[in-house]
Amino acid sequence: MVLRTFATSVALLVGLAVVGSVAGPQWDPRPVSDHLVPATADTTVQVSADGRAVPDVGAVGDHAVRTTRVTIALDGATVDGVLRRPLDSDGDVLADRPGVVFVHGAGTGSSAEAFVDTADLLASAGVVTLVPDKRLDTYSTRERDYEHMALDYQRSVDLLRTVEGVDPGRVGVYGESEGTWIAPVMQVDDPAIAFTVLVSAPIVPPREQAAYAVDSYLRNTQVPDQLFRAIPRAVGMQFPGGGFGYADFDVRPWLERQSAPVLVVYGTADPSMPVEQGARIVLSDTAVSPEPAPVTVRYYGGANHGIRLAPADHPGNDPEHPSPLHPDFPRDLAAWVQGLPATGTAEPTVAGATPDQLYLAAPVPRPGWWGNGDVVVVAVVGGAALVLGGLTLLGAVSGWRALGRRRDRPAPAPAAPGIAAPLGVLGLASVATTVVLAVYLMLVARLALDYEKNALVVQGGWVTVRVLGLVAVVAGSVLLLRAARVRAERRAGRDSAVARGGVAHVGVWAVGLGSASLLVTLAYWGVFQLGI
Question: How far apart (Å, rounded) are the C-alpha atoms in residues 188 and 179?
Fold first, then answer.
């Protein structure tokens, strides 16, 4: 019996491993082979391409700043905003200044909290800045429309052009992260926008950027290799409940139509963005525009996603305790904006610290079998419901029979001898493995987003998940062998059955089918993948 149990368990494990392997795409990102090398480590903007010297411009801290709350009328809504204007030595608003509208990255985007230091430092150098609140009634995790968001932010551009002290012909847009999918759309819709600043720009579609970021974070967290297979299966699927159409938004058609200077900015310690690939795409796409837009690229060493100097072991952003901006970034930003158009063609085009992107962001393979997230949810929830419902049903049958039994004889069990124990272990272990896997993935996600390592959680947790899965498989093997023995006895003419009574049969089949659904789901997410 032991030998047959071992052989059956091995066969089931191999079968689940094969099913898990062929049920969805693998993950094999292509390494970056042609790296982008800055011409110099000095990010300062100095001389234009045609030899003209960049004009003298205001430096950070030259001016006091007047901060004013404003209201911006949108189509069907209003949002607040914070306007910052530089003042002269007499306390009057400077005249004929360039202006910048800030476009938020992902999140809520409060004007009172977002871009505070960047907008303030830029204003102190002589640039009028406007940070609007993000419109939230049309923005959610499931639904976003970047073209419509561009129209909303355009209202802030229109307002800033009318503000005292602003030169309406020198108003541009500053987009960060998700906002860099919006800023190029704005410039195409309104060619009068004088420039765009793209900070920590994904450039590739959101689905590709998400897969790239997950891969980068997981590699830093040093997760088991089996978990990487989950990247295309999770990110590439049609998300449960529908929506998320913006996941495949492609900004490149708008980049190909840019007509105003573009400043591209990355921190070399930003693990979530394809820092080399993004710059290359902007350089190549803008070059094919009917009116090619000059591009300036700057890399800041040790800076994270917000161009902030975060600790090396935690390059993410902490909204509650933001780290300081890289000191050279506001200086260069102010010089570039105020020096246009000369600074748009300033040499060198690419400067700063050397970036090191390991893998390319690329289209995410789509799952074939389980490409619909609703199916995955049904398989998990339905499987768990069948297991727990079936076990409850068998328990109720056993209790009912115990109440109605005669005192001189035991109550008949709902299942044949040797069936109940492995059936219960199979069902409970399948559910437990699924729950522990979900908890494990959440813990790993938290570690990854915090850019932390914890071998006990990452490696120990994975071993726990696989051991629980192995318990379920062994229990399933024992159940199959004992069920086969019962059927053999029945064929031999003995009064034997896996379950006794119609209700008991329903309970046994519910646990078996539910467990099978959960085991196949676990195989899909790599729990039974061969290897350590």
Answer: 15
